Amino acid sequence: MRRNVLPGxxxxxxxxLLYVSLIVVLPLAAxxxxxxxxxxxxxxxxxxxxxxxxxxxxxxLAALGATLxxxxxxxxxxxxxxxxxxxxxxxxxxxxDLPFALPTAVAGIALTALFTSNGVFGSILSDVGIKVAYTPxxxxxxxxxxxxxxxxxxxxxxxxxxxxxxxxxxxxxxxxDGAIFRKVILPLLTPxxxxxxxxxxxxxxxxxxxxIFIAGNQPMSTEITALLIFIRLxxxxxxxxxxxxxxxxxxxxxMLAVTxxxxxxxxxxxxxx
Amino acid sequence: xxxxxxxRTPPRVGDGPFFRRALIGAVLIVGAFLILAPLxxxxxxxxxxxxxxxxxxxxxxxxxxxxxxxxLAALIAVPxxTAFGVAAAWxxxxxxFRGKAFLLxxxxxxxxxxxxxxxxxxxxxxxxxxxFGPTLDAYGIKILFAIPGIVLASMFVTAPFVARELxxxxxxxxxxxxxxxxxxxxxxxxxxFSVTLPNIKWALLYGVVLCNARVMGEFGAxxxxxxxIRGQTNxxxxxxxxxxxxxxxxxxxxxxxxxxxxxxFTIIAKVALERQGAGRVRxxxxxxxxxx
Lengths: 273, 292
Hints:
Chain A is mostly helical. Chain A is built from 13 helices and no strands. Chain A has one domain (40-272): MetI-like fold (Orthogonal Bundle), CATH 1.10.3720. The radius of gyration of chain A is 23 Å and the shape is globular. Chain B folds into two domains: 1-46, no CATH class; 50-291, MetI-like fold, CATH 1.10.3720.10. Chain B has 15 helices and no strands. Chain B is globular, with a radius of gyration of 24 Å. Chain B starts with a helix and ends with a helix.
């Protein structure tokens, strides 16, 4: 092995480990410790209470809906940005990042203003009998907004690097556009799409600021899990807050593992080709 | 075949004029509803009660205090995070050590954790029911429901922001230049400032800009640890919530317009930095980085 002549390992690694330990690991460990101090019976009772279960249900269902919407819209948006040239394309490309740049609380009140029954969109939708604000649909729309960039930004670079020769070969063999998209292009995009989906879903599960303004926050129907944690804190029920937070933390770790696994698989796929 | 004869690029999949127009149209319409409309409505609602109300809200002592606190949190959290990001990138890309892949995953954790969970976690470290809370309280040190808590929570949510821009770039650049500088007798700091820094400055700035936007806009984590005391521990996002629930919608949107403006400037800065090449390597190297 080559001897490393560069200085600064001890300082840089020391700073890194200290920072990561104090800022990231210690708080999460404290949370797990607090939740674990409950004992299995009490813990289970809290995390499987009807109100908690209802909160998981609405959170997961809305996150699934939002991710599905973003899968279709995000792919279409990435396609349009990469494949077509039209006036204003660069501006649209830049605007895709707005959900990341705009603070969630600002997005929350803006979406609420648009979708309440006397808002610009809400008034039109309520005429046809659709209520968005203060319903699960509102939660879904807030999640759509905050997680939109993930799928666009994971698919975009892959779409840019797609070899035109593959399409030409398929075209010369007489494939229709639809068939080529399904059988040649989509399989190549799948790893990136899945990575974007898992990021988008994970973000939606934990989202708070954008949702609480538009959600209505009724227990058992429009109360997301992150809000239930917040409510338990305000009631000074710290143990329950710790227990439910640990469920959300577990879900986050699960999604992180899935994302890393998908990206490792995507890498193997590209290396093989 | 027609492509070979005319010398023009062949029509690719989805290039039919009807499909192309329909898809661009559909995407732009949905995009306008989902992305553009929220941005516009902030401006509309902020001035709904007129210029005077807007001016009064912005100049109100509580708003000014919230702005100051937000700027203060960013002034502390962003430089500390930047130093951490540089140190982490240097250690990870310039040296080999065991557990590197694991360290990379740990640095990325805050991306996946809900901001509310982050806030609660800090409560169990520094709160009265937490690990160090009682001891800190005995010495009269206040971390939660005060500025240090806000800064710490902001540091958690933005911990990966600078590191994830630098690591893939410095990985791609390799170690040769630094090793040459060091073997010619340059000190570590000199090597960093004269050799490494010029090569990573745009990516570094890119990370700083995104980190700053997130610190100034963080809501969930900060709302748990701040205690929400009007005129004392309210950052701008928390101030917006307070006004909104006080039925002062115009005031809430006026305050929100400041943050929306910062978001727009962040995007402009991001585009400008991408023109310098920042952010490119991350996209290309992202899968590799996570699999290593």
